[in-house]
Amino acid sequence: MSKQEFKAESKRLLELMINSIYTHKEIFLRELISNASDAIDKRYYKALTREDLKFNKEDFFIKVIPDKEKRTLRVLDTGIGMTKEELEDNLGTIAKSGSLAFKNENEVKEGIDIIGQFGIGFYSAFMVADHITVKTKALDSDEAYRWESDGVEGYTIETAEKADAGTEVIIKVRENTEEENYDEYLEDHRLQEIIKKYSDFVRYPIKMDLTTQEKVEKESDGDSEDKDPEYKEVVKEETVNSMVPMWRKNKSQLTDEDYINFYQEKRYGFDKPLKHIHMKADGTLRYSSILYIPEQAPYDFYTKEYEKGLELYSSGVLIMEKCPDLLPDYFSFVKGMVDSEDLSLNISREMLQHDRQLQIIGKKIKEKIKTALTAMLKNDREKYESFFNNFGKQIKYGVYSDFGQNKETLQDLLLFYSSKRKKMVTLKEYVEGMKEDQEHIYYASGDSVEKIDKMPQTEMLKDKDYEILYFTDEVDEFAIKMLMNYEGKTFKSVSSGDLEVDKEEEKESKEEKEEFQEIFNKLKEILGDKVKDVRPSKRLKNHAVCLAADGELSIEMEKILQSMPDGAGMKSEKVLEINTDHKMFKALQKHFASDEEKVQAYANVFYNQALLMEGITPEDPVAYSNDVFKLIEE
Ligand SMILES: Nc1ncnc2c1ncn2[C@@H]1O[C@H](COP(=O)(O)OP(=O)(O)OP(=O)(O)O)[C@@H](O)[C@H]1O
């Protein structure tokens, strides 16, 4: 059986390829510039390997020249050029990459960054062009050639005139359509913008003739100021790209200022970064990265609109503006870039073929950020607290999310306000400061430090000199529940039914309960399902009542869950605690045997007062108010 070759309808294939591979038309310029840069690289390589060739860096550049009248855009280079055969081979065969062949044939050395590998990029120019001309003269050749094509009907090659070696690609820009504005590819500022975005770190200068306004110098009559200055348009050749990628430089060559400038130039944020991390890896997977911890959270940071990610470059050419896979969610505030020459790109260069490489880089990045934050916490507490103020919530979400997978990584980065030290403390610091027989890490939840400070439930612990951590973010208690314990110490809410502070006092409290059993039973009967229990309190000193919660769900958590669309059914097991030494309890005792109506009012007022102190509105404010009046009327 004879083997048949596949036949391809090349016209269709070309059309398909051009219009379905790329998401953004503007990348055609990135592709042409990358080809030009590859061509110069090849010439540089030849110069390294041949004695008779010199490579004077200044002579090698890429130039981008738009012409609005002719609707042409020219991209020229002083690279290696192409012979007639190479033109046929490389531009006449789709998916044939002369650059990949060059890389394979030559042992490409350090300092050469050949980008092309698929043999596709060139044709992306047909997304914006209806006709392309390539004029080229190969190094060491006397002949120049012109390749022309309008994309669908094939191409022609004929001899041409060209003085020096190199290539000039002339694209005839399409006319605007209703959906598409092609004129922008003839505008200086737009071209500049595209070059900066994708090709800023191409190693050779990308030049453009740019028009600027210059003041006309007039004959002046002494020192009077020119009230009516005249300007003229001046065209100057300028280099548009920055060329040297900062991340390739050695750290020792760079100052803090350089890193700040880079952050601002790249518009990673409008603030100043708190810290930068510059890393390079030279193992099997080579990459460099500059990461920043910003000073302030962007306005949309805690919204769904915020997109995390790092810029991803392949050999200095931008592949992705925000590559999310390089950052875990809990470090989503980190900005910066990664450049690697070892990425396996897909043909559009918009994605990677394997995410394994990203996983490896991402893991290292995660470790570096953690190390940097830990060092900041240790060596520059003020800076760390400012960081935590902005991004701490994200770290807490990190502890809580993914079923607590990352809690160990993150637990030592947490800070909470301490009742005792009146400042932020780490969990480690809390545990180190625990009283000898203290078993739990105590915390109190509320809207603000000020409000928590006044919570009746904190009275007794403070009195006995226990330290309490104040949880003011909604996520705090959820995160801590996920953490379960820290260095073997479990977390306990000041509102929990059983504080386990003083065993002796607890015994007393039991005895007391027996003494007032009848009253407490009655109160429970009146309040019904609203509370799980009514008990005498030992934690209260000056206040009459408070709410405590038995079980896992605290009152604060219930409030948060209630505000969520599907959290309405979640209820905490509320316990009404009453201070039996308080005047109000004594008043209740007085009426207990004689006035059923008053006892009802007391029960409701006690309960609703406790709710109010938790920031919860009574279910029936009118009934509550009437009950209050009933009690003060005498
Ligand atoms: N300006 C140029 N100077 C010299 N050779 C060029 C130039 N532009 C293209 N070529 C040749 O044409 C080939 C095909 O280019 P094309 O852009 O289609 O693919 P590529 O750059 O090899 O790969 P990729 O699709 O990954 O960009 C290149 O490999 C190179 O050999």
Automatic annotation (TrEMBL):
Which GO cellular component terms are attached? cytoplasm
A molecular-function term among this protein's GO annotations:
unfolded protein binding
Look up keyword Nucleus and say if it applies: no
Q: Where in the cell is it found?
A: Cytoplasm
Q: Where is this region: A?
A: 1-349
SUPFAM superfamilies, A to Z: ATPase domain of HSP90 chaperone/DNA topoisomerase II/histidine kinase (SSF55874), HSP90 C-terminal domain (SSF110942), Ribosomal protein S5 domain 2-like (SSF54211)
**Residue positions binding ATP:** 31, 35, 77, 82, 90, 96-98, 117-122, 167, 349
Q: What are the alphabetically sorted keywords of the record?
A: ATP-binding, Chaperone, Cytoplasm, Nucleotide-binding, Stress response
Q: Does the keyword Chaperone apply?
A: yes
Q: Where is this region: C?
A: 560-634
The family classification in the record reads: Belongs to the heat shock protein 90 family.
Q: What does this protein do?
A: Molecular chaperone. Has ATPase activity.
According to UniProt, the name of this protein is Chaperone protein HtpG
Q: What organism is recorded for this protein?
A: Isachenkonia alkalipeptolytica
